[in-house]
Amino acid sequence: MNKLFHPDPIRGKLVLVQGLRALAALMVVVHHAQNEAAALAGRTGTDFVARHGLPWPAGVDIFFVISGFIIVHAAAPLYGRPGARCRFAAHRIARLVPLYWLVTGLYLAVGLAAPALLSGEGGAPDVARTLASFLFWPMARPDGAVLPLYGLGWTLNYEMAFYALFALGLGFSRRGAVAWLAGALVLLVLAGRLMPAPPVPLAFWSDPIVLEFALGAGLALLRAEGLRLGSPVRIALAATGLFGLATNASLSAEPVARLLGWGLPAAFLVAAAVLGRDRPEAMRGGIAAWALGAAERLGDASYALYLIHPFVLRAVREGLLRTGLAPLLGPWPSLVVMVALTLPAALLVHRLVERPLTRLVRRGLDPAPAVEVSKSAVTPER
């Protein structure tokens, strides 16, 4: 057998992927923390200039490529099997919905109790927008932005649509499912571009950003076919990905530009993580092993970190202002404090809220298994 190709048994979590999840979540946190630091500077009369060494919002693009990879990789025992669609749907709903609904409900409660804290974030909620938010249905806000009640949920509106498309392809083999998924996503993008005035949901779901799921799915297929790269090639891929992101830090919001400038570099990073040994020899001891373990734990909690960090950032910002610490610290040290406090908060929410909720809902939704699958194969982290 060619040295580049090896069998691909599923053996639990992919540690480097978890590390990438941690990076992606932290990028989003830093992006929003800079917004909070700017607001803090405005209220204390100090100067603050945001830094863009990396395009912080591109953490979402890394997440999307990872999602495409993980779903295809972890569904290995389900392709072409009876009951696969129901089992997949049950586990995806249990994984994403409970915490998102809880956070959206909390956001709604805060908005009703203290509207000033959420001023300028889409206007007062109404029944239609609230229902659309809970059902992952894209709907325009009064200001025209297609965002759910809790703004971060826009990514989950894409995720759930991706899961629905992927579930339809589970009746095929893995190759067939990936081909179906890639073809369906391309057709979706073309439909949105060719239709003169597409309805809001189609206009939203046909954004080229959805092709990042296809990039991740393609990487999963390459791994499943046995492609493995040596460390020098993987390091080169990772360096290319980081360089691509850094050189596109000030990219415009044009959708195709985002796909090329952020999506492709994100795919290089994910390729570096998945197309080789999951735990390289250089990371099996000392500080490197400790750092990888810490990144893995934060990656496990990345969904909680993504969803709760705006609450923590806003609460810490207000705390610093009301205690008089903000002018003493200044914007950048305040930003460090805000980001640092999101991490233990996310780890606690992951352990005490997210995991118990996921187990509870999964037990209620998971049908009698029609196929025997390993736990790690059907419960991929986000």
From TrEMBL:
Keyword Transmembrane: yes
GO biological process, one term: polysaccharide biosynthetic process
GO MF annotation list: acyltransferase activity, transferring groups other than amino-acyl groups
Keyword S-adenosyl-L-methionine belongs to the record: no
Keywords: Acyltransferase, Membrane, Transferase, Transmembrane, Transmembrane helix
GO terms for cellular component: membrane
Entries under Pfam families matching the protein: Acyl_transf_3 (PF01757)
Domain Acyltransferase: 19-350
Transmembrane intervals: 54-79, 99-118, 147-170, 177-196, 234-253, 259-276, 332-353
Name this protein carries in UniProt: Acyltransferase 3
Naturally occurring in which organism (per UniProt): Methylorubrum extorquens (strain CM4 / NCIMB 13688) (Methylobacterium extorquens)
